[in-house]
Write a structure and sequence with these properties.
Helices cover 31% and strands 17% of the residues. The protein has 470 residues and is α/β, with parallel strands linked by helices. The chain has one domain: Alpha/Beta hydrolase fold, catalytic domain (Rossmann fold). It has an eleven-stranded mixed beta sheet with strand order 3-4-6-8-7-9-10-11-12-13-14, with helices on both faces. It has a three-stranded mixed beta sheet with strand order 1-2-5, with no helix packed on it. Helix 2 links the parallel strand 7 and strand 8. It is globular, with a radius of gyration of 23 Å. The N terminus is likely disordered.
Length: 470
């Protein structure tokens, strides 16, 4: 081979090695290999806890067994076990299964050597019975391009995520029992603290963001005594006013769980109840449970109770916010204009009320309303969850060839606010309309308006909310 060709070949191999080297990453359970595409590195399907199957069904997440060699991390793992439904706004990209406690990470391909980037951690919604980290619109690639490390993960849903039985309580030996989905979320945040530096992220600068059930989960984690020090900023999208949604707490959750057990012929006092319940096929545990069963029921909803206040992981968020007993971190909070319950309902009015409560403790609060509908929809008003693709700058994935230039402009602006907030705790930055801090006295917020503009000012629905919708 001629010298010039040899040098070119060596240079090519060196460049390829330089590109590939950062994709092999060591974490506390072993080495993983990701991929690089379009300026973004990604690692998917990383186990952050042992598979919660067999005897580990309805147990707190346990550590992952270390593996030898390099584990492939180029594809999403299974989303958690559930019954998907056709009208889901973010359809899953993988087949649901019990073995689902996995993590996904995106990071910019080029970052200053030694610099630790801000981290954004996403919690999906779905009423605690549906959802997952694999929907295409939930990719963190476009946010990573703006200079952050983006993390998403799965947590157990439905009866896998919330189940209370006297024998489970005894088995926990005084530890938390029942809120297994919240336990997964806490384990994921602990994993981030231990491992995110390996991907170029700063474990001391973590922003937790979630929508709907994910927003409620953010409220839970911000107020949880067990999550102290794990979160440094928070974004609550359509997460309500922070009130616990399950009346009756653990007692109501246990009653629903025992009613389900009885429907399978397993008596509450059967000494083999747990063995029999753990032996049931995963599809039997789902047993027709999903959002459609509650919001468009063709029959009485199956027995189920969502997450509840347990006093350990989950305190009553609204009460904690009012008393000031929460993580004093900057918070961005809002809802869509046509959210569940309308202008005076739990999402819109609740977000405004909670922003006021947080601001009243001299904690930075940035309140927003998302009023924009993608042009392809041809409608006025923004429905529940329609803001997610714009926050992630994935509207072009959501609406494909129907995406308009204005849609993309809205995505660029909102995602820039989010990234600025993750970096500094303040969403403002060059070229963006000034987003004012919220205070009850001034009622200043940011409206992502129907015409695609970011419009700061007094809440346009404030008087209607204050009048109770009259």
């Amino acid at each position: 081979m001629k010298p010039k060709l040899i040098l070119a070949a060596v240079a090519s191999l060196t460049a390829a090695s330089a590109l590939a080297a950062p994709l092999d990453v060591a974490i506390d359970s072993g080495r993983i290999r990701g991929i690089s595409e379009n300026g973004v590195k990604s690692w998917k399907g990383i186990p952050f806890a042992a598979p919660p199957v067999g005897p580990l069904r309805w147990r707190a997440p346990e550590p992952v067994a270390r593996w030898a060699g390099v584990k492939d991390a180029t594809a999403y793992g299974h989303d958690c076990m559930q019954l998907p439904f056709p009208s889901d706004a973010a359809p899953l990209g993988t087949e649901p299964a019990e073995d689902c406690l996995v993590m996904n990470v995106w990071a910019p391909e080029k970052a200053a050597p030694g610099r630790k980037l801000p981290v954004i951690v996403w919690i999906y919604g779905g009423g605690f019975v549906n959802g997952g980290s694999s929907p295409p619109t939930y990719t963190g690639a476009n946010l990573a391009k703006q200079g952050v490390v983006f993390v998403s993960f799965n947590y157990r849903l439905g009866r896998f995520g919330t189940f209370v039985h006297p024998q489970l309580t005894a088995e926990a030996k005084g530890g938390p029992a029942g809120n297994f989905g919240f336990m997964d979320q806490l384990a994921a945040l602990q994993w981030v603290k231990r491992n995110v530096a390996s991907f170029g992220g700063d474990p001391g600068n973590v922003t937790l963001i979630g929508e709907s059930a994910g927003g409620m989960s953010v409220n839970t984690m911000v107020t949880s005594p067990m999550a102290k020090g794990l979160i440094h900023k928070a974004v609550v999208m359509s997460g309500g006013d922070g009130s616990a949604r399950v009346e009756g707490g653990a007692a109501a959750a246990q009653a629903a769980s025992l009613a389900y057990s009885a429907s399978k012929g397993i008596a509450a006092k059967d000494p083999q109840a747990l063995d029999k319940l753990r032996a049931l096929p995963a599809t039997d545990i789902v047993d027709g449970l999903n959002l459609e069963a509650f919001f468009a029921p063709r029959a009485p909803p199956p027995p189920y109770s969502g997450p509840f206040v347990d006093g350990a992981i989950a305190v009553e968020p609204g009460q904690a916010y009012r008393s000031g007993n929460f993580a004093r971190i900057p918070i961005m909070i809002g809802a869509t204009s046509n959210d569940i319950g309308g202008p005076t309902g739990i999402m819109v009015a609740g977000a405004r009320a909670l922003a006021g409560t947080i601001a009243g403790h001299q904690v930075p609060a940035y309140h927003y309303r998302f009023s924009y509908a993608a042009e392809a929809l041809g409608k006025a008003g923004a429905d529940h969850a329609s803001d997610i693709p714009f926050f992630f700058d994935t509207q072009a994935i959501k609406y494909a060839d129907k995406t308009s230039a204005r849609d993309n402009g809205v995505g660029r602006v909102i995602s820039a606010y989010l990234v600025n907030f993750a970096k500094t705790g303040d969403p403002n930055g060059a070229g963006l309309p000034k987003w004012p801090l919220y205070a009850r006295a001034t009622d200043q917020m940011m409206d992502f308006a129907a015409d695609g503009r970011a419009v700061p000012g007094k809440d346009p629905l404030g008087a209607q909310i204050d009048a109770g919708g009259k």
